[in-house]
Amino acid sequence: MADLTVHTYTAAESGLFVNSYLLETAGGVVVIDTNLLASDIAALKARLAALHKPLLGVFITHAHPDHFNGTLELIRDREVPVHATSGVAGVIRRIADAKRAQWGPVYGAEWPSETYYPNTELHDGEQVTVDGLALTVRELGEGESHADSYLLVHPPSGEPLAFTGDLAFHGTHPYTADGHTAAWLATLDRLERELAGVRRLFPGHGSSAGPELLADQRRYLLFYREVVRRLARGRPQLDDTARLELEAAMQSFLPDVPLTWMIGLGADAVAAELATEPDLSPAQ
Question: Are 86 and 27 in a shared domain?
């Protein structure tokens, strides 16, 4: 076999179409992100078992439950390093119980009852080698989530691959409800420089693509922010009429793709973010 095969498990719509990646080497499997709901986590575990190779490690890209909820079930009864940057690990510890309290009643038994926290924290730029794969983690801070990172994977032969978490969604409306869109835009600028030589990006939602994925995400965020700015008029939230107008505008901007409910979900967080930014419009 090739020295690296990338398998993708994509959740159902109820699980937000989130991707978990299984990086198969000659000697085992590394998993990047572990899914959200119990049914998808079980399917991911079955996909791992079907490879008939040991789990060598888990990496969590950022602090959202659709990326860390499945860790406990995936590593149950195994001693496996679960890697995350210190920033990502810290935010997971801070938010996991609150996310369970918020979403557990909505999803019921589908929401895992326990959280397994990363047991191997990495600093920015640290490299981990697993069965010939060199994985370098970059800490990014606030952006799409309260703590983002990405992984650059160098196979023993072939080109490097970037696993970018939710820094760029592909073919779905993104999550903006953590309210860090200005920092997210700055991160996208940084990634365009840092990943200039990487031809294949693996996002947390949607199919793999080239670096144009980053530019597409920037355009979406810039448009979203400007529509919210116009509708909010300096207020930290949108009323129901404005929210509907935002949803219509974004569905026109990115038509016929799923997770449209994400549009309104982030409206108030982004309005509140914009309300604290200086007004750069021309003086009248």
Answer: yes
Among candidates 229, 221, 108, which has minimal Cα distance to 175?
221
Examine the domain organization and report whether 135 and 216 are in the same domain.
no
Residue type, 126: E
Q: Give how many domains the chain has, as a whole number.
A: 2
Buried b (16+ CB within 10 A) or exposed e, 151-189: bbbbbeeeeebbbbbbbbbbbbbbbbebbbbbbbbebbe
Q: Are residues 153 and 25 in the same domain?
A: yes
Q: 3-class SS at 260?
A: coil
Looking at the structure, tell me whether residues 160 and 225 fall in a common domain: no
Give the CA-trace dihedral at 241, 245, 248, 252, to 10 degrees. 180
Domain with 154 in it: 1-166
Please tell me whether residues 15 and 137 are part of one structural domain. yes
Q: Are residues 111 and 156 in the same domain?
A: yes
10-residue averages of pLDDT along the chain (284 residues): 89 97 98 98 98 98 98 94 98 98 97 98 98 97 98 94 98 98 98 96 98 97 98 97 98 98 98 89 46
d(CA 25, CA 87): 28
- Letter for the amino acid at 208? S
Report the SS3 class of residue 242. helix
Q: Are the CB atoms for 267 and 273 separated by under 8 Å?
A: no
142 in a domain, yes or no?
Answer: yes
List of E strands, 60-199: 82-85, 120-122, 127-130, 133-141, 148-154, 161-165
Q: Does residue 264 sit in the same domain as residue 187?
A: yes
CA torsion angle 210 61 47 43 (round to 10)? -110
